[in-house]
Amino acid sequence: AMRRIRTLELPHMKILTIEDDPGRCRGISFALQQEGYEIVTAATKQSGWELFLSEQPDDVLPDLNLPGRHR
């Protein structure tokens, strides 16, 4: 007898990635998109904060070594 395997549909999630290294940002974005996440990227803390407020992501993946003032 043939068995059907049901796959679970995960809820659509948006992740904000804050990373100043373009190559690293592309790699992270590509990997997360392959897993089905929508990715929003920022290269600075300020643009990350603005995107956080406007895009309302489900999660944030920050570069903890970005230069600038800590919030």
Short structural summary:
34% of the residues lie in helices and 20% in strands. With 71 residues, the protein is α/β, with parallel strands linked by helices.
Task: Please render the helix and strand layout as text.
Blueprint: E1 14-18, H1 22-34, E2 38-42, H2 45-55, E3 59-62
Parallel strand pairs: 1-2, 1-3
Structure description:
By secondary structure, the protein is of the alpha/beta class. Helix content is 34%, strand content 20%. It starts with 13 loop residues before the first strand and ends in a 9-residue tail after the last strand. The chain is flat. The chain has a three-stranded parallel sheet with strand order 2-1-3, sandwiched between helices. β1, α1 and β2 form a beta-alpha-beta unit. The model has no long low-confidence stretch (mean pLDDT 86).
Offer a few descriptive terms.
2 helices, 71 residues, single chain, three-stranded parallel β-sheet, alpha/beta, 3 strands
Query: End-to-end distance, in Å?
Result: 59 Å
Please give the order of strands in the largest beta sheet.
2-1-3
Helix content: 25-40%
User: Which spans of ≥5 residues are poorly predicted at pLDDT below 50?
Assistant: none
Shape: flat
Task: Estimate what percentage of residues fall within beta strands.
Answer: 15-25%
Number of helices: 2
The gyration radius over C-alpha positions equals 16 Å
Give a quick account of the main beta sheet: strands, pairing sense, barrel closure. 3 strands, parallel
Structural class: alpha/beta
Order of helices and strands: EHEHE
DSSP E strands, number: 3
How much is the average pLDDT?
86
